[in-house]
Design brief:
The protein contains 17 helices and 11 strands. With about 375 residues, the protein is an alpha+beta fold. Among the domains are: about 150 residues, NADH Oxidase; about 100 residues, Leucine-rich Repeat Variant, CATH 1.25.10. A hairpin with a 5-residue loop joins strand 5 and strand 6. The longest helix is centred in the N-terminal third of the chain and has 20 residues. The chain is elongated and about 75 Å long. Bound molecules: cobalamin.
């Protein structure tokens, strides 16, 4: 049965599959609880000690659970734009350039569980996991031999690297188990050294609050000012710790069509239109995309930071328009920061003007700070 399930999973297009028991993921539970206690998961209010425990106990996630089928699928595609855009550009993490993986994987997992139900000839209970539910997917996949823990925290899968979505099925069906791979990153620590915000505080250890991915996707408020200059051009997610990984250099683009980049989403995403987009444009452009997780105001906040980081004075008129007309104070305050970072006479003039009509206290404070920053030169 185990080999038939694996065969079917590969036929369905998954690139790797392994099986582990539903026993507690004991080591990961200890590690995860420690992370929560140390405040490394701060900013994710739902990531409580209770969630950490549950995520490592498959038997509490499905009655009478016996096995976990862990799956990986590549999302790497060749996203080089045919006509590189002009003007300031931003970057969207690779995993979010195509259709939302939650919806796409849900369908394939359903096909796999239907197959298992049919093949087993008995009534099998199963529960699918795709990112949003409490199962530690990296730990389950590691124990099932799908990949190894990278020092950058990601699960690295032979052949596809860490450019892999993980998903799983917990079943109340006893299946033959696979063994974890005997692989590791060895002495390589390129990812730890490459992270501009120092979010990888140790090997296998991420400080959520410093991670650009967290800041651009999950943070609903102000981005800490000391992190903004380090965020470069990232407007949604971040791939720096994966881009530098030698295991990823060998990975070939083999993403399903669903995960291929939508036009204009990638390493060269034009920033100006993102900043000006209204609610309707946003809904149309990002329908069915994982980018929606940041919400429009989050994406525009990130866009303002990325524009500030270009240092390009050509971005100032667009920023000015947003400072005047964007409905979210969160966006306007980051726009003011961006103008202060770019600097120049025009930025100063627009900031002075905005000071006269802005009535949100937080935004006014950001305008003052930006003007001070300009005065200091
Ligand atoms: C919360 C979350 C986040 C948070 C991160 C919080 C955090 N510190 O983990 C934020 C929003 C920042 C985030 C970012 C990203 N995420 Co995320 N995220 C999750 C989620 C929902 C839970 C992860 C979790 O439980 N974290 C708790 C930490 C403590 O555990 P962990 O990271 O799983 O495991 C590491 C450590 O626990 C440690 N560890 C575990 N056991 C043990 C045992 C020992 C002995 C030791 C020493 C260490 C150790 O090593 C593990 C890996 O190195 C999962 C989906 C899921 N349900 O699992 C997706 C998931 C992990 N994310 C994913 C992705 C794609 C990303 C990004 C790459 C997106 C991007 N490009 O911006 C980044 C990567 C950032 C990074 N370097 O990790 C994928 C990862 C795929 C893969 N190949 O690993 C997942 C699995 C979603 C999916 N279904 O595909 N994510």
């Amino acid at each position: 049965m185990a080999s038939r399930i694996k065969e079917r999973a590969l036929e369905l297009g998954f690139h790797a599959v392994g099986i582990t028991s539903a026993a507690r993921l004991a080591e990961t539970e200890e590690v995860t609880l420690e992370r929560v206690r140390q405040g490394l998961m701060e900013g994710l209010p739902w990531f409580t000690e209770e969630r950490a425990r549950l995520s490592c106990r498959p038997q509490e996630l499905l009655a009478d659970a016996k096995s976990v089928v862990a799956l990986a699928v590549s999302y790497l595609s060749d996203d080089t734009p045919v006509d590189p855009p002009t003007g300031p550009i931003g970057k969207i993490a690779r995993y979010a350039r195509g259709d939302d993986y939650h919806a796409v994987l849900k369908v394939r997992l359903k096909e796999l569980s239907d197959f298992i139900h049919k093949e087993s000839g008995a009534t099998v209970s199963s529960r699918p996991f795709i990112d949003s539910s409490p199962l530690s997917e990296r730990a389950a996949a590691r124990r099932a031999g799908v990949g190894w823990f990278g020092k950058n925290n990601n699960l690295i899968v032979p052949g596809i690297g860490s450019w892999a979505f993980l998903s799983a099925l917990i079943l109340d069906l006893e299946l033959e188990e696979d063994r974890p791979l005997l692989k590791s990153c060895g002495s390589c620590d390129l990812c730890i050294r490459a992270c501009p915000t120092g979010a990888l505080v140790d090997q296998y250890t991420l400080d959520n609050t410093k991670c650009i991915s967290f800041q651009t996707i999950e943070n609903r408020g102000e981005i800490p000012e000391d992190l903004r200059p380090e965020m470069g051009q990232w407007v949604f997610g971040c791939d720096i710790c994966q881009d530098v990984c030698p295991a990823n250099r060998k990975a070939l683009p083999q993403a399903w069509d669903d995960f291929k980049a939508r036009p204009g989403l990638g390493d060269s995403t034009p920033l100006a239109p993102l900043l000006q987009m209204d609610g309707i444009e946003y809904q149309t452009r990002f329908k069915g995309s994982a980018v929606k997780r940041a919400k429009r105001r989050g994406l525009q906040r990130n866009t303002a930071v990325a524009l500030g980081n270009t240092g390009d004075t050509e971005a100032v008129p667009g920023l000015q328009l947003a400072l005047e007309s964007n409905d979210a104070p969160l966006v306007r305050s980051h726009v003011a920061w961006a103008m202060g970072r770019i600097g120049g006479k025009t930025a100063r003039r627009f900031l002075e003007r905005a000071k006269a009509y802005e009535n949100d206290a937080g935004v006014l404070e950001s305008i003052e700070k930006a003007l001070e920053c300009l005065s200091r030169g």
